[in-house]
Design goal:
Length: 591
């Protein structure tokens, strides 16, 4: 196969529109990849697009991960087998409602500023690309594969206008073997296209938008004309739905209205549906938005996105509306039937073990002592929780306390008894302990709810999680603190032989026996408070009673025939006695 970009996209000498769908392999368990990719082809798609998250592939500096859900080559193999073209967006920054926009947390300690020409940052990008890019170069059409384009950076025009930085990123891709056409993607208006495109370098500009194709493509045309370039129109991110935040109803977009916007794009150019299949923000991978207007707003565990495929890869009404558009515009296309999987509600189970966090602290975390409170990144921790505990007894003369400059959610304890929870702007409000004994201590449990992935606060000091300044008693900072890092990547070190105490964070263990082949299911968390869930040692993400999702999706390939262990880490002090399953999600719908 030969691919060429002229005034149109040419495949083996014939012009063809790209009908692409975004499928993030890192948000979908490998056992669902084939269903998702097949359903893209069954809808009429000819291309799959994916970002590549740096933080998942290099979670610690110099330690690389390409296994399991991070097995990008395996995902590309399936796409190739199904005959799909591939667009890869390996930009060091991906946004994507993903923690820190894809940047590893260790960069906060390693370099001065991301997305800049800072030598320490660019050296880290170089080392990452040296490991990543050779794993994908053989998929390029220039070497007999299906990979047709790769991206330089990502929506850079919405961040800065440093063309030399963009060229440095381009040069690294070429250095490690990229020889397919390169492209950029930016919003569909003049200012960001001017700032983020690289047409003087011969790189294809594309635009991102959710509607008004004619208007957005006109901006693309203006920027191309200004640079004396004639290239095909492509919407690299057609926003066919949207992401969701905690405590607010899910965002929906009418299928027929969205299909009409989809049609308008295809009548003028090519398209990449963002998202085609959203998937799930497993573990602690969700990102957050932050602005002066709305403040800090983290995303939820589900990344359903109201996309053509739902979270568990089944077609929606929007899918069939899009499929109808493709069939009308391309009547000669023969579309296979989509794969539809069944979800089941397994029998509820009673808890078999329970233990308080404070009792098993030494088995689930690592403790060090420092004279002042340090954020988690300074201790080599990227995600999860961190517990601060006074080394020495607090003084008895004052019961007034204040947590200074902390992110994102703090729970304050006196002798392991809960006093108050503070979140966001509440942090820093006065905390009162009425009676203090001679040997009393205070503890502070801080949750990292996700780093900002987009906007002016991407490089803010607020990206450091934990207590940055300290805890004051009266007018002075308390010194000497035990820091226990709690990344909670697995539950395998929880010691359930120890004690449980009510009204404090705790782990609850459940044993689930499955007969026959496991199937997709949902955990009903509507009676619980807040926390995370582990399935056979895998952290499947956060839950929170404020919604909008009251269930958690559990893919079939995280379960096994026979015995399964599910552990709930509940931070709000609620006792978890029973675990209930559902065959479909429970969601707070818009009114």
């Amino acid at each position: 196969m030969h691919f060429e970009i002229k005034e149109e996209f040419y495949f083996d000498g014939k012009p063809e529109r790209i009908i692409s769908g975004a499928i993030h392999y890192f948000r979908i368990t490998p056992g669902k990849w084939r269903q998702s990719l097949h359903n893209l082809k069954a809808m009429g798609g000819n291309t799959v697009e994916t970002y590549v998250p740096w933080n998942m592939h290099e979670p610690k500096k110099g330690e690389f991960n390409f296994e399991g859900i991070a097995d990008l080559p395996k995902f590309l193999d399936i796409a190739t087998e199904l005959g799909l073209y591939i667009i890869l967006r390996p930009a060091p920054y991906i946004c994507a409602e993903w923690d820190f926009g894809g940047f590893p947390a260790w960069l906060l300690e390693e370099c001065d500023r991301v997305r800049s020409r800072d030598p320490k940052y660019m050296a880290a990008v170089d080392a990452y690309y040296k490991e990543l890019i050779p794993r994908v170069t053989d998929y390029q059409f220039t070497r007999g594969g299906n990979l047709i384009m790769m991206q330089v950076e990502n929506e850079y025009g919405s961040y800065s206008d440093n063309k030399e930085y963009l060229r440095m990123n381009r040069d690294l891709l070429v250095k490690y073997g990229v020889d397919v056409p390169l492209m950029t993607s930016d919003g569909g208006w003049d200012a960001v296209l001017e700032a983020g495109t690289m047409m003087e370098e011969g790189i294809l500009p594309t635009a991102n938008f959710g509607s008004r194709a004619k208007e957005n493509f006109a901006a693309l045309e203006r920027i191309m004309t200004k640079h004396n370039v004639k290239k095909p129109y492509m919407c690299m991110e057609f926003w066919d739905g949207w992401f969701n935040n905690w405590g607010k109803p899910v965002i929906r977009r009418d299928p027929q209205e969205t299909a009409q916007a989809f049609r308008e794009i295809l009548e003028l150019g090519s398209v990449n549906m963002f998202m085609f299949h959203g998937g799930t923000n497993f573990a602690f991978w969700n990102g957050a938005n932050e602005s002066r207007h709305e403040g800090y707003v983290p995303q939820v565990t589900s990344y359903d996105y109201d996309a053509p495929l739902n979270e568990y890869a089944n077609p929606t009404a929007k899918y069939y509306a899009f499929r109808e558009v493709v069939q009308e515009l391309y009547p000669d296309k023969v579309l296979p039937e989509p794969i539809i999987s069944e979800a089941v509600a397994y029998e509820s189970v009673e808890a078999t073990n329970k233990v308080s966090l404070f009792e098993t602290l030494d088995t689930v975390g690592e403790t060090t002592i420092h004279d002042v409170t340090k954020p988690m990144e300074a201790l080599g921790q990227g995600y999860g929780y961190i517990l601060y505990d006074t080394v020495n007894p607090i003084q008895t003369h004052s019961g007034r306390f204040e947590i200074v400059d902390a992110n994102d959610r703090v729970q304050f304890y006196h002798n392991n008894e809960h006093v108050v929870t503070q979140i966001d702007d509440e942090i820093g409000q006065e905390i009162i302990i009425k009676e203090i004994g001679d040997n009393d201590h205070v503890q502070v449990l801080v949750e990292n709810r996700g780093r900002t992935n987009y906007g002016p606060y991407l490089t803010s000091p607020r990206q450091n999680k934990g207590i940055r300044a300290g805890v004051r008693q009266d007018l002075y900072f308390i010194s000497e603190w035990k820091h226990t890092t709690l990344p909670l990547e697995t539950d395998e070190t929880v010691d359930f032989s120890r004690k449980w105490k009510e009204n404090v964070p705790a782990f609850y263990e459940f044993n689930v026996t499955i007969e026959g082949e496991p199937q997709d299911t949902f955990l009903d968390m509507s009676d619980l408070g807040k926390g995370v869930v582990f399935v056979n040692g895998v952290n499947i993400g956060r839950y929170w009673e404020i919604g909008p999702y009251y269930t958690m999706y559990l893919p079939h390939d995280l379960l096994k025939t026979g015995a399964n262990r599910i552990t709930v880490f509940e931070t709000e002090g609620k006792e978890v006695t029973k675990l209930t399953f559902a065959s479909e999600p429970k969601i707070m719908e818009p009114k």
